[in-house]
């Protein structure tokens, strides 16, 4: 019973694809024009692009335990950026800027007058940078996270009041906390110092690195958007100061909540230049492998059209997915490379089926037999790819879900475009072959089989004449 079912499916596919091949051979123009128009129509969906780059949204499990635990913490210990900001309550990145500063002159100790002077200068640059959002100009002091009416401060900078005493050895810094004898700030050194070297009595000997952090209010969507603009300005200001050599004694590394987003986006952009070169190499490979010694039976243009069919299908699939409101991520740019591989595989299967048909058979019948023979192979290949990506959609990671969803669209479109658009190109090539036209230039030539027969007749004539 099971074998009978498989036989019935195989027979149905062969019969359906045979009729499709005959239909395409009789009306190839429709099967070329319609896919091209549909591709152009679907590509208008790129206007609906929703580009998603949030790392937590994309790469954390949808129902991860961490999210549930965070929700409990946020319920009882909610962060209040505008009035009672407490660093210990932070459960999300929010909007912030962070700098890590190390000595530039080879000395591994930041506790020096000249380095703290430049730290103060860096702090002033960051706090006084002007940001524009929806026509409104503001600085860090206007958007900072606050305790009562005071901005969150990097009070470690107040060590500059006692730096002369620290350098001379008259005053020791005790780890992990001490009170500033001038400002009476309670300095929690582990928060700001990195790689601290201590004596046995927890006296600080040297500090190789210092970090400064700037938190921006992000309680509402508008505040979050303003914070994002401040982060952009923060990255530009600090980056410009570091790149221009403004600081002689310190080297600055900088980071913001958007830095990871930017790096992911930068990685995405690095893939784009490979599109043209990859397409060119695959097209060249396809063209060469589709060529034969016979100038009539050779089909180099079909190798190229197989690649074009896959690219058209992928573009149309992506456009339709965007019309459906599916978010787009940078990882999706790997899909065209996969689709080109699938398309080339289908191309070779269909060409092999064509070459197994008798050359004297009418083009419509050859197309029918070719499609009938290739039907099972390309259908099973496409279904296998389809199910593989379909399984990926149930992944708990949204990045995998989105990539697999776009790939499912692309596999379906690649299959349909190959059995219509590419098949129509094969039909036109079949008519060209039928009329003995050159495979590349389209001019009238003699088929190799006829040419070989002519050479044999000439050879027989020459031999007979010499014997006579």
Automatic annotation (TrEMBL):
The record ties this protein, via InterPro entries, to:
Patched_domain-protein, PTHD_SSD, SSD
Name the Pfam families on file: Patched
Where does it primarily localize?
Answer: membrane
Where, by residue number, does the polypeptide cross the bilayer?
271-292, 304-323, 329-354, 374-394, 406-428
Q: Which residues form a coiled coil?
A: none
Q: How does it sit in the membrane?
A: Multi-pass membrane protein
Keywords per UniProt: Glycoprotein, Membrane, Transmembrane, Transmembrane helix
UniProt subcellular location: Membrane
What SUPFAM superfamilies does this protein's entry cite? Multidrug efflux transporter AcrB transmembrane domain
SSD domain: residues covered: 271-428
Judging by the UniProt lineage, the source's domain of life is: Eukaryota
List, alphabetically, the GO terms of the cellular component aspect. cytoplasmic vesicle membrane; plasma membrane
Family according to the record: Belongs to the patched family.
Q: What is this protein called?
A: Patched domain-containing protein 3
Q: Per the UniProt entry, what species is this protein from, by scientific name?
A: Ceratitis capitata
Q: Which gene encodes it?
A: PTHD3
């Amino acid at each position: 019973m099971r074998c009978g079912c498989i036989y019935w499916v195989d027979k149905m596919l062969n019969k359906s694809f045979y009729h499709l091949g005959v239909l395409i051979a009789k009306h190839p123009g429709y099967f070329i024009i319609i896919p091209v128009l549909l591709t152009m129509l679907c590509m208008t969906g790129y206007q609906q692009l929703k580009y998603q780059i949030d790392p937590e949204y994309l790469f954390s499990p949808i129902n991860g335990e961490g999210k549930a635990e965070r929700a409990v913490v946020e319920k009882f210990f909610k962060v209040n950026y505008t009035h009672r900001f407490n660093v210990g309550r932070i459960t999300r990145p929010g909007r912030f800027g962070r700098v890590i500063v190390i000595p530039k002159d080879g000395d591994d100790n930041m506790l020096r007058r000249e380095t703290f002077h430049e730290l103060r200068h860096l702090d002033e640059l960051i706090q006084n940078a002007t940001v524009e959002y929806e026509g409104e100009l503001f600085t860090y002091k206007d958007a900072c996270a606050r305790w009562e009416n005071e901005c969150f401060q990097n009070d470690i900078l107040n060590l500059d009041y006692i730096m002369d005493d620290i350098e001379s050895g008259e005053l020791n810094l005790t780890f992990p906390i001490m009170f500033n004898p001038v400002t009476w700030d309670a300095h929690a050194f582990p928060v700001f110092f990195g790689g601290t070297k201590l004596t046995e009595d927890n006296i600080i000997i040297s500090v190789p690195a210092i970090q400064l952090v700037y938190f921006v209010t992000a309680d509402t969507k508008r505040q979050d958007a303003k914070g994002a603009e401040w982060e952009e300005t923060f990255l530009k200001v600090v980056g410009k100061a570091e790149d221009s050599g403004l600081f002689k004694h310190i080297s600055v590394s900088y980071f913001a909540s958007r830095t990871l987003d930017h790096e992911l986006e930068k990685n995405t952009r690095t893939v784009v230049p490979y599109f043209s070169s990859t397409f060119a190499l695959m097209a060249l490979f396809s063209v060469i492998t589709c060529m034969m010694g016979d100038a009539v039976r050779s089909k180099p243009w079909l190798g190229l059209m197989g690649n074009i069919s896959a690219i058209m299908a992928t573009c149309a699939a992506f456009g339709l997915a965007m019309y459906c409101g599916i978010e787009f991520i940078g990882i999706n740019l790997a899909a065209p490379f996969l689709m080109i591989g699938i398309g080339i595989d289908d191309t070779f299967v269909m060409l092999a089926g064509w070459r197994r048909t008798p050359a004297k058979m009418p083009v419509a019948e050859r197309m029918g037999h070719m499609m009938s023979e290739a039907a099972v192979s390309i259908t099973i290949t496409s279904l296998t790819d389809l199910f593989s990506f379909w399984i990926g959609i149930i992944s708990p990671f949204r990045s995998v879900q989105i990539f697999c969803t776009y790939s499912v669209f692309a596999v379906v479109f690649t299959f349909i475009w190959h059995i219509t658009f590419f098949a129509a190109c094969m039909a036109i090539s079949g008519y060209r072959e039928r009329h003995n036209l050159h495979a590349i230039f389209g001019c009238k030539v003699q088929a190799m089989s006829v040419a070989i027969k002519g050479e044999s007749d000439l050879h027989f004539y020459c031999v007979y004449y010499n014997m006579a």
